[in-house]
Amino acid sequence: MPAETRRVRGSAWRWGLACLLVLSILVVVFRRPLADALWPETRVQQLLDQAGQALQQGRLDAADGTGARQLYEAAQALDNDRSEAITGLQRVGQAALLQASKALEQNRFEETRALLALARDLQVPRAPADEVAARLRARESEHAGIEGFVQAAQQAQQAGRLVGSEDAALPLYRRVLALQPSHLAALEGREDALSDLLQQAGQQLAKGDVQPAADLIAQAREYDPGHVDLPGAQAALARALESRRQQADRDLRRGRLAQALEGYQAVVAVSPDDAQARQGIEQVGIAHARTAMQKAADFRFEQALADLAQARTLAPQSPQVAEAEQSIMRGRQAQARLDSSLPARERDDRVRVLLAQMAQAEARGQWLTPPGDSAYDKLRAAQALAPDHPAVRQAATRLLPATRRCFEDELRGNRIRRAQACLQAWQALQPTAPELAGARRRLAEKWIAVGGERLGAGEVAFAAQALAEARALDAEAPGLEAFAARVTSAQAAQ
Questions:
Q1: Cα distance between residue 24 and residue 484, in whole Å
Q2: Taking the model in full, what pTM does it have?
Q3: What's the rounded Cα separation, in Å, for the pair 191 and 179?
Q4: Of 30, 99, 283, 385, which has the fewest beta carbons less than 10 angstroms from its beta carbon?
C-alpha cells in the first residue's frame, strides 16, 4: 500500500475517533435536558417518585427544593393534567397537619405554627386546622402560666395600678387575651379596669387638667376602642377643650395674655388640628406686638423687646410684628432726640412741636399708626419730656373723648379697620373703661356682618380674617359660632 494512502487512512481514523469522543461527552452532559425534551413524561414521573419518597421520609417542605411540596409543585408545573401531583399535594397537607399535632404534644410551639401554616397553604379542610390552632393557643396559655397572669392583673387592679408598666393590670389582661381571646375573667377584668381608667380621666377633667385626661382616654381607646364608657369620656373631653378655649378667648379679650396663651396651647396639645385655638395663639402674638408698640411709645424698650420676642414666636407672619419693630426703632430715635436737661424754653418749644404733630395725626385719624408718628405716640413723647406741662395734660384729656368719637363715627360708616384703630387707642388711653366691653362686642358683630357678606361673594380668606378679628374682640359675640361654621365649610370646600 502506498505511503500516501496509509497517511490518509490514519488521519481519517483519528478524526473519527475524536468526533466519537466529543459526541459521547455531549450525551453525558446533556442527557437530562434531552430526555426532558424528548420524553417529558419520564421527567414528570421522576419528580413524582422523588416527591413520594420525600413524603415518606417526612421531608414536607424544604427551601432547597427537595421537599415533597416543592417536588409535587414542580411536577404539576410540567404537566398540570396529572392528577397524581394534585393528590400528592393534598397528602402533604394532611401530613403537615398530622406532624403539627405531634409537635404540639411535645410543646414545640414554633414548629407547630410552621406546620399548621403549611397545611393551611395547601388548603386542608378548615375544621381540623382550626382545631389544631385552638389546641395550640390553649397549650401555649397553659405553658405560660396564664392563670398566674390573671391573678397578677387582678391584684394590680385592686392596688390601682391600671397602666404605666408591664406588670400593671391592663397590660397583663392584654397579654392573657392575646393567648386566650375568650378568657372570661380577663375580659371582665379588662372591662372593669377600663371603667376605672376612664373614671380617673373624668376626675382629671373636673380639675381642668385636660392633657392627663386626654392621655388616659387615649390609652383606654388603645386597649378597647369599643368600651361602653369611651364615647361619654370622649364627649366630656371635647366639652372640656371647648370650655378651655372659650376661657382663653376671654383672657385674650381682657388682656391676660399669659393665661390666654396657656389655654390655647393646652387645647392644641390635645387637639393639634383645632384651627380656632391656633388662631387664638396667633392673636396672642398680635396682642404682644401691640403691647410692644405701646411700651416703645413710653420708652420702655426692654419690656417692649420682650413683648416683641413673644410676638415673633407666636405670630411670625403677622404685619403687626414688623410694625412693632419699626415702633421700637422710632421710639429709640425719638428718645435720642429728647433731652430732659434742655432749658425750660427749649423744652417748651419741643413740647409745642410734639403736640402740634399730635393734632395733625389726630386730624388724619392716625391714632396708633404709623408707629412713632401716631397721635398716641406724639402724646407719649410729650409726656416723657414734660409730664406735668399744662398743655400736655390738656392734650391727654382731649385725646380720650376724641378716640371714642372716632370709634363711633368709623363704626357707623362701616369702616371697621379704622374703627378698630380708634378702639385700640381708646383702650390704650383708658384700659379699664367699663364701656370698652360693649364697644368690643359691637365691633365684633360688625366684623361678622361684613365677613358674612364677603364670604357670600366667595372671599374666603377675608372671611377667615374677619372671623379671627371678631373672635379676638369677643368670643361670645352673637352669631360668631354660626359664622365660624360657614367659614370652616368654605375652607374645606376649597
A1: 92
A2: 0.45
A3: 17
A4: 30
